Amino acid sequence: xxxxxxxxxxxxxxxARMLARAPTAQxxxxxxxxxxxxxxxxxxxxxxxxxxxxxxxxxxxxxxxxLLLDPVRLESVAAALEAVAGLPxxxxxxxxxxxxxxxxxxxxxxxxxxxxxxxxxxxxxxxxDAAALCxxxxxxxxxxxxxxxxxxxxxxxxxxVTGLVAAGLPADAVQLVPTQDRAAVGAMLAAxxxxxxxxxxxxxxxxxxxxxxxxxxxxxxxxxxxHVYVDASANPAMAARIVRDAKLRRTGVCGAMECLxxxxxxxxxxxxxxxxxxxxxxxxxxxxxxxxxxxxxxxRGSDWGREYLDAVAAADLVDGVEGAIAHIARYGSxxxxxxxxxxxxxxxxxxxxxxxxxxxxxxxxxxADGGEFGLGAEIGIATGRLHARxxxxxxxxTTYKWVGRGSGQVRG
Length: 412
Known about the structure:
Layout: H1 2-20, H2 24-40, H3 42-54, H4 61-67, H5 71-85, E1 94-99, E2 105-112, E3 115-120, H6 125-136, E4 140-144, H7 150-166, E5 174-176, H8 183-189, E6 197-201, H9 204-213, E7 226-230, H10 236-248, E8 257-263, H11 269-278, E9 282-285, H12 287-292, E10 297-298, E11 312-318, H13 320-331, E12 336-340, H14 344-353, E13 358-361, E14 381-382, E15 390-391, E16 398-405
Parallel strand pairs: 3-4, 3-6, 4-5, 7-8, 7-12, 8-11, 9-10, 9-11, 12-13
Antiparallel strand pairs: 1-2, 2-16, 14-15
């Protein structure tokens, strides 16, 4: 399997040199042509997805939802390519510049990272999103999708390559690992001479393995344990609307709320959690909250800090915003956390003190999405502290180099 990955990498390095110097207009044209090719190939792509769905009867409803493509979702995939094509190109942009006392002019310039490996599960839209973002940022992508989406991924990849070639870019700029053998993942993790960065998108098991075994830098998040805190001053109608959307709009996405925290001083906590339960969510409540709504399930210790990715949520009462901040610090995953409040001071304290990649005030956690942030698409949500944080799009897929322009300066 090492030889397979090495062959992919050798072709990738050749394509990377061409892609790094490709003008913005050519890269944008490739994405626009890829979107057109996907629309033209819609019957074949949807038929391939139907094959994957037929073989996925054993998966959970949330996982099947991630896997599903329908005409509306496929159109959104194509539209995302066009959105990325219209974004400002970060490559070649000057970050800052200075002139030293000796006249040496220095500048930091954004450049592509190089060759990026993306290892992902279930969601076939990642094939298109990752390819588009990598190409527009001047990077070559080596994609290794999950076996559950194998037919969908191949169909989407074929359409994308059609767009690349039509625009005069190398087909090898986006490659799909040609095997579902799990050994391919291990080979990618060890390919320090081939890959410059690995981005895993998938379940906890996959991401944990990548972070533990990779000899290549990794950009990832492990869990989306997201909280919504409803403060005593919250507008009840707004709180109910946000809580329901945060949990139930799509339960299988990484931005879904997994834990609801309610201020003990909130006027009617029972009504809020009952509304969530009536909407179809199993609420696992802490002891204090169950005293107000005894019909709810009893939360166990393992329910705190758990990513359900299903119509299930933990919930409890806390002692104001400080209690919420402490709970999130203990059980959160630094992904996305939100506060619902009419008190500006309380909101600003929450936004300042909660150490997550995304913090929101009076908005659903489901906005944790690159498209919603105006980034066109995203390649993932990064929860670490280095390089990039939050939705990673074009700028997050670049690095920089120092460029110096002199007139004969020496240090002597």
